[in-house]
Structure formats: structure tokens, C-alpha cells
Amino acid sequence: MNIKNILIIGIAILISVILLFFTPKTKVMSPQSVYRVYLAGKSVGLIEDKEDLDQYIDKEQQSLKDKYNADKVYAPESLEVVKDITYNEKISTTEEIYNKIKDIEPFTIRGYEINIQGIDTTNEQGETIKGVDQTIYVLDEGVFNEAMDRTIRSFVSSDSYDRYLNNEQGEIQSGSTGTIIENIYIENKITIKETNIPSDETIYENADDLSKYLLFGTLDEQQTYTVQNGDTISDVAFNNKLSNEEFLIANPEFSNATNLLYEGQTVTISIIKPQFRLVEVDHQVSLQDIPYETETRYDDSQYTTYEETIQEGVNGSQLVTSKVEKVNGQVESAVIDHSATRVIKEPTKRIIVKGTKKRSYGGVDSSLSSTTKIEGYWLWPTITTYYISSPYGYRWGTLHDGMDIAGSGYGSPIYASNNGIVVASSYKWDNGEYIVINHNNGYYTMYAHLANRYVSVGQEVSIGDVIGTMGQSGFATGVHLHFGLWRGYPYSRGSSSLNPMSLF
């Protein structure tokens, strides 16, 4: 080996030594087991101990524990802690992670989530209204159960409900009246589950607040009215767009609409908005009038202004057995068991004599005011075994401008209540098949939701003529007749609806 080669080898060895001593050494890290914290799917850092974070949250949120008398406060609903492996990422302290999440999402407490499934309905325009699901939070399941019980008792008398629950309803004795509850159920699907509740949700801690919400749909202060001298429950209810039934539900201290009010008394007049549909199916036996008919005899020697009653009319009476379905205290449908109807007393016909020298439609003096009761001149428009499923008046804040007569059965006859001329015989999406009669004295009667119409516009009809049959056409729940009385053509400018019961 020559000197040149020896020199090259020496230089190479020297360079190797220099590199060995002066090149930085790479540090080899061991893997570390940690927990990665996610909030709403976004990583907020790493911690060493998941339980430490839970305990820190519980300690720092003592005020929330005190507010709800809770045993423990939990992490926000979207917080997720997942086991992970890291080599050289920074590990945060429990306090650092807490400070990152505390103002982003609310912490939670253990309780119960109740879901009340909404039910689709149809409005007066025939449009489907999607049912709204309700979510209610309580810390104690017993609060919900008590609130539901209170709300149900707003619609059903407590005594009747207790007898139903305890299977203590007696039979209705022959010849007597009474009601037996056959079934009570909530139409909505209700689910209850234990869960962590975000602290910014409305959490019902007592049955008073929750029952108020279930009945009125709000926790806002209820509207009240101070009773004036002479007020009756019916007056106060109607003037504030409530039915008698709704008034009694909002004011459970009253048992019926005949209870007396005193001047200065404070009553609730808020419109109820129940958060579920309570269905009650009743077997009822009720005493019902059989309206007397009027027989008119004519004397061509007397003028049309002559009228004489030669026999007074007297209503009869009958026991009527019905199956009635109510929703939140309001009658939705009624079916009469005609085979069980029992006549107690036959009616006595009223007989009058009228002059005929000048024709008079309807047998009613046109000078009568809109509030005059026209006894004996008008015929009940259905067969006389019937059920008034919805009277004239307000319901859910909207005026029901007639009365619904049910129970007579699909296809049963509908009669002209008085003499007159047919001014409408048609179909409309809300009224269904309907007829309007002008009685030529300022009064009009309307017959809606018919199955069939037997008269046409311009046709003259007499009291008692069959003009159609009962049905369920148009916007109608159940088979019934909507019978309306109007001063002026219905729904025209300047016209007004009247209570049809003023005719009978």
C-alpha cells in the first residue's frame, strides 16, 4: 500500500469520527396512553384521566347542583372522551379543558326526557296541519305523572275519574239517567327515558308548573277577568271567546255553568291549548225533550195579521242512550242507540189558526227582532232522537256559528225548519253539501255537511219538507248536521249569526 492510499484511508476514518461525535442524536419516544376530548365533534385537547374531568366538572358546578338539588353535574351533551395514543402531543390539565368547554355548551344533570308525539289535524281550510312533537324535561318522573293526572282531571270530573280507575262505576238503573265512562286514553304516543338534560332547557321541577303548561301551552301569566255585577259564567265565557266547557276547565273551582259569580271575583279567561289529546268514551242515558209540532189551520175570512192559538203545545220527553266521544272535554262524535230510546211522555201538538187574505212566508212577523224567541213556529231540523255535539258559541277561540246535531244517523232525514225559498243548494269544501233557505222575514237557515240534497235554488219549501239527509261531507268530524240561523244571507256583508236554539 502506498503512502497516498494510507493518507485517504486516514482522512476517511477521521471524518467518520467527527460525524460520530458531532451529529445530533434522535431521541426515541415511547407511546403514551391518554384521552382525547371532543366537543361537538371537534377536538379540544388531551387529558390523562377521564374521571378527573368528570369530578372537576361536578365540583366547579356546585351552583347548578344547588339550583336543581341535584346529586351530580355531568359534562355537556356533545362532549365525548375517547381513549387515544400519543407520542409527543401536549397534554392539557383538567382545568384547561374545563375552561375551554364551560362557555360553549351547557353542562347537564340527570333526569327524564318525555316525548309527546304530535298528531296531524285539518284546519278550517281543509289543509293538513302537521302535529308538533313536544319534549318535556323533569328531574323526577313522579312530577310528570302527577301533572298528567291533574290535567286529565281538568277534563274529567275527579269523582267520575276515580270511579273509572277503581272500577267502581255502577250500572245505570232502568228509567234513570247517568253516564258511565267506558274508556279514557291519550291518543298521542308518549315515551319516557332517563337521560342527561342540558341545563339551559326548561326543566319542570313541580307538578303545578308542568300541569299549567300541559293545559295552556305556556308558563306565561294567565289572562284574568274581574267579575262585574250581573255577570254569568256563560256571558263571561262568550265575551272572551271561550265555550262554557273551556271556562270550566280553566277555572276548576266551578262545577258547571250555572254556578253563581260574585262581583269582584277574579276568573281565568285564557284560551286553553292542551298539549295532548285526551279521548273519553262515554255511555250516556239522558232525558231529552221531544219538541212539539205546530199545526197551522187557515181561515180565508181573516187577514194575514190574524192569528189565534187554539191549543198550546207541550214538549214530550224521552230517555236517549248514546255513545259519546270527547276529546279534551269537547264532544267530537255521538251515536244514538235508537233501539234503546224510551218515550216517557208524548208531545202535545200546538194548533194555531191564521188568516190567509195575504200570503205570509214562514209564519213570522218581519218586525220580530233578532233576539226574539219564536216558539212553535219552527220545526226541529232532524228526527227528534238527537244529540247536540257542539252548541252555538266559541270553541278554541273561534266562533262556532251554528249548532251541530248528531246521533240521528247517516242518511237520516233533514227537514226545512220553516216555509221559505231555497237560495243555495251546492257544495263547498268546508260546508260540504249544504242548503240555505230564505224565510222572507230577514231570517235564513243553513243546513251543512249533508249526504244528499233534494232541493234546488228557487224551489219553494214548506215547514217539515225533507230537503236532504244527514252526512259527513266537507270539513266535518263525524256524521252530523250543522244547523245555522242567520239574520241576513249567511256570511254576507252586514249579516250576523244567531243561536239556533232561540228558535225552539
Briefly, what is this?
The chain has 504 residues and is an alpha+beta fold. Strands 21, 24, 25, 26, 27, 28, 29, 30, 31 and 32 form a ten-stranded antiparallel beta sheet that branches. Strands 3, 5, 8, 10 and 11 form a five-stranded mixed beta sheet that branches. Strands 9, 14, 17, 18 and 19 form a five-stranded antiparallel beta sheet that branches.
Can you describe what's shown?
Helix 2 (50-60) crosses helix 4 and helix 5 (141-155) packs across helix 7 (207-216). The strands form 8 sheets. Strands 21, 24, 25, 26, 27, 28, 29, 30, 31 and 32 form a 10-stranded antiparallel β-sheet that branches. Strands 3, 5, 8, 10 and 11 form a 5-stranded mixed β-sheet that branches. Strands 9, 14, 17, 18 and 19 form a 5-stranded antiparallel β-sheet that branches. Mean pLDDT is 88; it is low at 359-376. This protein is an alpha+beta fold and 504 residues long. 25% of the residues are buried. The longest helix has 20 residues, at 3-22. The protein is elongated, with a radius of gyration of 38 Å.
Structural key phrases:
10-stranded antiparallel beta sheet, 504 residues, alpha+beta, 5-stranded mixed beta sheet, elongated, 18% helix
Secondary-structure blueprint of this entry?
Layout: H1 3-22, E1 32-39, E2 42-47, H2 50-60, H3 62-68, E3 73-74, E4 79-86, H4 94-101, E5 108-116, E6 121-122, E7 128-129, E8 134-138, H5 141-155, H6 158-165, E9 178-186, E10 190-198, E11 203-204, H7 207-216, E12 224-226, H8 233-239, H9 244-250, E13 266-268, E14 278-290, E15 294-299, E16 307-311, E17 316-327, E18 330-336, E19 342-345, E20 350-355, E21 387-390, E22 393-395, E23 398-400, E24 403-406, E25 413-415, E26 420-428, E27 432-438, E28 443-453, E29 460-461, E30 466-470, E31 480-487, E32 496-498
Helix pairs in contact: 2-4, 5-7
